[in-house]
Amino acid sequence: MKDRVKNIFIEGPISPIKIGESIAHHQSKTKIGAHALFLGQVRADTVEGKTVEAIEYTAQTEIANQVCHEIREEAFSQYELSCMHIYHSLGVVKKGEICFFVFVSSGHRTPVIDSLNELVNKIKARVPVFGKELFEDQSHQWKVNQ
Question: What are phi and psi of 71, to 5 degrees?
Fold first, then answer.
């Protein structure tokens, strides 16, 4: 599915309303029979005795959007998908809030299930998004993706 390079970034957390609206917009697409989604949420990790209160996300947006476009195209050529949406937060996202949303659709369940994990792993490995963990004591450190 050849498409233009899309901006995946949303300032701040990804709201449950945005997620719900994304799902609702697909009700009119009656050739779709399956959806799968991944939601990444900020954890209140404890690092060296300090608790993460939020993560501040930054990115090389132009490069990140291009790499995401390439990952999208790879997935569409490998799997029989109807559509795909990828969103990632920029700025501060508090513990418990959603920072990453991947949503794939197809006529059948196998392509969405098979593609979702691969998509998330490729995005985490290849897209230049950086998170700075902000601790309760006002200190911070750069996050390592896992």
Answer: -65, -40
